[in-house]
Amino acid sequence: MTTFAVTGATGGLGGAAISALIARGVAPSDIVAFARDDAKATPLREAGVVVRLADYERPETLDAALGGVDRLLLVSSPEVGKRTPQHRNVIDAARKAGVGFVAYTSLLGADTSPLMLAAEHRETEAYLADSGLDHALLRNGWYSENYAASAPAAIDSGVFAGSAGAAVVAPAARADYADAAAAALLAPEAGRVYELAGSQHLTYPDIAAAFGEIAGKPVRYQDLPVADYKAALVGAGVPEGAAAVFSDSDGGAAQGALDSSSTDLADLRGSPSTPFVEAIRAALR
Length: 285
Fold this sequence. Notes:
Largest sheet: 7 strands, parallel
Helix content: 40-55%
Number of strands: 11
Distance between the termini: 38 Å
Oligomer: single chain
Radius of gyration: 19 Å
Shape: globular
């Protein structure tokens, strides 16, 4: 039997990937969930998934957790600024453990993306390439859920603010990316680079209109300079670091960084991405 492992298993993407593997026919007992917090992993254990404590920053836990693993989904760390060394620890441990295949969740167009988030993904991709491990890159586009955080204020005020200009974006639901990751693990193709983007191509006025459809009232888009948008986010209580990421990403979107004509996501899943309005409705429940 093939043993699958998923890092960050108590997070949104990791947990959804485990659900997707099970939905695609993998027995829970053949899945190893990596978690730093044992209590958070209780639902996974109760579902029959094997839980192993593992910390990106403690290599000894990774060595133990990867024993007997055949295929690994390396979900990128949520700790921006610390990702590269953390990912290297996992890759080193996977090599020592003899893992047969690694799928890494990177960023759409990471090799050329102007987004500040891209640098650590490029560094991880290069380290994987030098590792000798068979691997594939799952270059995820923007999550539809990233826009859901803006929806309540936009619906309340009737204004959705951003700094993407006339950008077109192709977001997809987190569960779509997780399902694609499960599909890639089940049919591993070493050397593949999957550019994963949603099936809909939306302008920011389209996103505002989607909020309006959900609210049953008009919502318009207001475009701001990147610096002003960042200041508005901070003023609304968004932490400085997160505000920098979101405003930078809008600026990158204006350069085409969050759109792609690739159909890899739909091809892997065997179906189009979740419609944007549905994803936002689900996120707001």
